[in-house]
Amino acid sequence: MMRFIATWFYIGLLKPAPGTWGSLGALPFIYIFLIIELNVLYLLIISTLVFILGWLATLIETKEKSEHDPSEIVIDEVVGQWITFTPLFIITSNEKFHTSISRNVFNININSETYSMDIILIFLSSFILFRFFDIIKPWPISWADQISTPFGVMFDDILAGIFSALCLTIILFFGLLS
After folding, report:
1. Max CA-CA distance within the chain?
2. What range does the domain containing 58 cover?
């Protein structure tokens, strides 16, 4: 069961680039969370619970193995990718943004029958931002990546998600996708 969790439904076993597959495997859940209008607080609670579960799964999967961060473990990418979407959930969770502010300033339309190009661009941008920071690993992400424990495996992707979320906030605020 822990392998199932650590590999995020065995997506981490896909080659090449299991981390990219893991990040892609996070996106359908974000889509569902948006459809059910999940509040940002619940997104953060779910992300925290999956982080803890991922930490435990990584601990079990790497126990007595020489490699502390095997490529097939992608639960860390899932949580990091979810954190990247936090700004979008802040916008959609806030009642005052359901007015013309979100349509005009952020130009986001999530609840229509046909999704606008904006939401597709937000998904694409969020995915690219997270993969960029997860691969390039600027400091302090590179520092966290050097922590040779299951916590380190998870934590560097949390930081990559935070960096990505900050960039997404700037992109959304300045309407750079419009």
Report:
1. 56
2. 17-173
Q: Which pLDDT does position 14 carry in this prediction?
A: 97
Residue linked to tokens 């986001």 = 108
**Three-state secondary structure call for residue 10:** coil
**Domains held by the chain: number:** 1
Q: How much is the pLDDT for 108?
A: 54
The answer to whether residue 127 sits within a structural domain is: yes
Per-residue pLDDT, 104: 42
Q: Does the residue 8 lie in any domain?
A: no
CB-based contact 158:98 (threshold 8 Å): no
The closest alpha carbon to 24, from 63, 64, 74, belongs to 74
Let me know if 51 is exposed, middle or buried by CB neighbors in 10 A (0-12, 13-18, 19+).
buried
- If we measure between CA atoms, which residue out of 23, 25, 75 comes closest to residue 50? 75
What is the model's pTM? 0.88
SS3 14: coil
Tokens (6 digits) for 100? 């013309």
Residues 6+ apart with CB under 8 A from 35: none
Query: Which pLDDT belongs to residue 92?
Result: 79
Burial class (CB in 10 A: 0-12, 13-18, 19+), 71: middle
Q: End-to-end CA distance of the chain, in Å? A: 43
